Amino acid sequence: MFEMCVYTMGNRSYATNIARILDPGKIYFDSRVFSKENCTQENKKVVLGAESAVIILDDTEDVWEKHKENLILMDEYRYFSSSKRPFSLDNNSISVLKRDEKSDDELMGRDVRQVLKTVRGEVLKGCKIVFSRVKNNKKLWEVAGELGATCCKELDSSVTHVISTDMGTRGSRWAVKHGKFLVHPRWLEAAYSSWKRQPEDNFVVGC
């Protein structure tokens, strides 16, 4: 049902070696290895195939400026334990594109970009977020919207989450006083990369 290939911004020898490690029996990728040497934005061959049927897995969004709707942004792989992020990520299951009751024929005819948008929009559905003195606020606001959350600037009883990096902000103090979730921006980033709402207790401000 799927045909997978490897693409890298590195050279072809690097990509070939990585493919050999990931798929020594050539079961999944076979010889479908592409690098920046033969796939460039200029010749528009970065996405190989119909855009409505291509899913891209990468930990870098900037590379796919023209194909963000096809992208599943992955959390960066960190080999050394000392380089792991300071928060605990609940990612026991990343298979968020669960099989529904539709037949294979119906699924084959759907635009994956719309499927990804729909599934992503369910992750934080029902959450209402206020950002309290957070850098890169605009980008995080967009991410929250893509995940189905509602963002606002006013603190009221309908707000479910306050996102901040500082316990001392007015918004942070309000969240604590009124029993609302007070979380670090990484909570939002983790939800985006894992495609599931993460436990708020794992992203406490000040940790």
Dominant shape:
elongated
Return the average pLDDT rounded to an integer: 82
Order of helical and strand elements:
EHEEEHHEHEEHEH
Question: Care to count the β-strands?
Answer: 8
How many alpha or pi helices? Answer: 6
Widest β-sheet, arrangement of strands: 6-5-7-8
Q: Rg, please?
A: 20 Å
**Biggest sheet statistics:** 4 strands, parallel
- Low-confidence blocks of residues: 93-97, 99-103
Strand content: 5-15%
Helix- and strand-based class?
Answer: alpha/beta
Distance between the termini: 43 Å
**How helical, in percent, are the residues?**
25-40%
Main features:
207 residues; 4-stranded parallel beta sheet; two-stranded parallel ribbon; nucleus; alpha/beta; 6 helices
List the helices and strands and how they pair.
Blueprint: E1 6-8, H1 12-22, E2 33-35, E3 56-58, E4 71-73, H2 104-108, H3 112-120, E5 128-131, H4 137-146, E6 150-152, E7 161-163, H5 170-177, E8 181-183, H6 185-194
Parallel strand pairs: 1-2, 3-4, 5-6, 5-7, 7-8
